[in-house]
């Protein structure tokens, strides 16, 4: 007799869990509180869906600072290459790898990923239950035997897989339901905070540059004069401060450490490829080249046009001062500013705007071999509901695919 499994959550982790359980002969219901699957999946990668990262297992773990080592077993059974093979061979969905090993559908359409997954669910006869929200897990003598929905209806099950996501993007259905369900059976929840979230600045000048993107820059996170963390790549100015890949990467550290005694601040290196000495040499050549111009008109080869007025203001050097009258001290000051535009952290944007949640179900209470609960027999976890989070670049979706895969198989095999 096949196992009856209820998967709660129709995001990537839940979908993969349902597919995997059905593959192994289980009778599967996939519960989704919305009227469609994969709403958060549809907006990942700016609507293109960064499916995974074309990296080996060690590199995957390295880029999952939030308990990545917990996934050694999961990645040994289903890694990024398995994910890519699944979509290309099983789903007939062509993929492509871009800068930073990011993997996308060749069509650049997240909807194509969702439709490919929906086709798999249909072919495997997974019962899709839309607009259905779990209220309570039914447990007797430490064993899960079903789920109550908010209507009061009871649904029996041999196993339940929680794949409800975290607290980021609540409009997609991630409102923390899984935490409440896990707590019902005794699981501890590590306080959720935003990870991969934009940063607000106290200064107004970053806000005045809203829309400006800078590539190949380095952003450093400082406490007093010590570098706490740093990231290289692309930064985007916004109406509240800064965002973009390197900001999102550092935001996890900000969220974890900003409440400690010494405040955190930011330093933006606009010329990370040059040492301070090399940059000074370039500035001297630049000043010779534009010696007959004023300071404001000499920065065009160093900075984007929209950044120049802000830079002049921060340098406190008169905009109309002749270049050939700039002093050595002023030139060195310009160089130091190019290597370290200062910003003060006001805070991070709300967790609802975070790409992923840090925190969740404590992994000490979950088996890394099959994502099963150590507290309740027949209960499994997958995806962001767990206290696991990675950097931007496809790593978090890979967590969803891998954890969903092994949870689904394990749940299906319980009765065999």
Describe the 3D structure.
This protein is α+β, with helices and mostly antiparallel strands and 416 residues long. The protein has three domains: 4-195 and 352-413, 3-Layer(bba) Sandwich (FAD/NAD(P)-binding domain), CATH 3.50.50; 199-270 and 342-348, Elongation Factor Tu (Ef-tu), domain 3 (Beta Barrel); 276-339, Helicase, Ruva Protein, domain 3, CATH 1.10.8. The chain is built from twelve helices and 19 strands. It has helices at 12-23, 57-62, 72-77, 80-90, 110-123, 177-184, 205-208, 245-257, 276-289, 308-315, 328-338, 395-413, and strands spanning 4-8, 27-32, 52-53, 95-97, 102-105, 127-130, 134-140, 143-149, 154-156, 159-162, 189-195, 199-201, 213-223, 226-238, 241-243, 264-269, 341-348, 356-361, 379-381. The strands form five sheets. The protein has a six-stranded antiparallel barrel. Strands 6-2-1-10-19 form a five-stranded parallel sheet, sandwiched between helices. The protein has a three-stranded antiparallel sheet with strand order 3-5-4. β14 (226-238) and β15 (241-243) form a beta hairpin. α1 (12-23) runs parallel beside α12. It is elongated and about 90 Å long. 45% of the residues are buried. The model has no long low-confidence stretch (mean pLDDT 93).
């Amino acid at each position: 007799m096949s196992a009856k499994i209820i998967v709660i959550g129709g995001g990537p982790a839940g979908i993969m869990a349902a597919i995997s359980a059905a593959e192994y002969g289980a009778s599967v219901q996939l519960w989704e509180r919305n009227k469609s699957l994969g709403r958060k999946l549809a907006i990942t990668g700016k609507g293109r869906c960064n499916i995974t990262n074309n990296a080996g297992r060690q590199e995957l773990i390295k880029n999952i600072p939030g308990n990545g080592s917990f996934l050694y077993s999961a990645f040994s059974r289903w890694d990024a290459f398995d994910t890519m093979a699944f979509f290309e061979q099983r789903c007939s969905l062509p993929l492509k790898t871009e800068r930073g090993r990011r993997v996308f559908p060749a069509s650049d359409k997240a909807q194509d990923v969702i439709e490919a997954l929906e086709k798999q669910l249909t072919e495997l006869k997974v019962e899709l239950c839309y607009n259905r929200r779990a209220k309570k897990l039914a447990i007797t003598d430490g064993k899960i035997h079903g789920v109550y929905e908010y209507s009061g209806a009871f649904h029996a099950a041999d196993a339940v897989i929680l794949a409800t996501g975290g607290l980021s993007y609540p409009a997609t259905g991630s409102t923390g339901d899984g935490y409440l369900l896990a707590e019902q059976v005794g699981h501890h929840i590590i306080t959720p905070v935003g990870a991969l979230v934009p940063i607000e600045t106290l200064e107004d000048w970053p806000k005045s540059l809203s829309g400006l993107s800078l590539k190949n820059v380095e952003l450093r996170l400082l406490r007093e004069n010590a570098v706490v963390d740093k990231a290289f790549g692309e930064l985007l100015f916004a109406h509240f401060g800064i965002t973009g890949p390197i900001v999102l990467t550092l935001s996890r550290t900000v969220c974890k450490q900003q409440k400690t005694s010494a405040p955190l601040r930011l330093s933006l290196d606009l010329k990370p490829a040059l040492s301070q000495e090399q940059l000074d040499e370039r500035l001297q050549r630049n000043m010779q080249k534009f010696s007959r111009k004023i300071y404001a008109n000499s920065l065009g080869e160093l900075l984007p046009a929209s950044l120049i007025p802000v830079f002049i203001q921060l340098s406190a050097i008169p905009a109309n001062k002749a270049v050939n009258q700039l002093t050595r001290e002023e030139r060195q000051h310009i160089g130091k500013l190019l290597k370290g535009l200062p910003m003060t952290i006001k805070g991070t944007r709300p967790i609802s705007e975070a790409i992923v949640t840090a925190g969740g179900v404590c992994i000490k209470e979950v088996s890394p071999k099959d994502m099963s609960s150590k507290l309740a027999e027949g209960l499994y976890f997958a995806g962001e509901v767990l206290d696991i989070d990675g950097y931007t670049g496809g790593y978090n979706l890979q967590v969803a695919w891998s954890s969903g895969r092994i949870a689904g198989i394990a749940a299906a095999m319980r009765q065999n």
